[in-house]
User: Fold this.
Amino acid sequence: MPLDLGRTNRLFSPGQRKALAIRDKECRADGCTIPSTWCEADHVDPWSAGGKTDLDNAILLCGHHHHLIHDGRCLHQRMSNGDLRFTRRTSRPRDPPYRSSHAPHSASESRHSSSAWSAATAWGAGVSSAQSER
Assistant:
């Protein structure tokens, strides 16, 4: 089976995951040491934006960093060694550069509504229990 699937498949194949495990060895977030066997393969250029399911467009990320890469409240940049460095946004993004296909359809369904965002003055700050029970 080929290791570069182009646009024929959205999901990475078992062979590609083995090749990524050999190449990456662990989560590619800067400073993270979660082993590759616990990581998820992700498209560097999203599939939804025309990205290919090829090894040069793939990166292994642990569950925590995989969620962060799709979180509009975080920024990430690719370092010279290929790792990703995550930083917090200092203000709420008007239109996140990437929205997960699992994003809520309305503000009332979102845990991160504008009132919850205002209440959490810093990224990662807790939301009051009244807001989290919605």
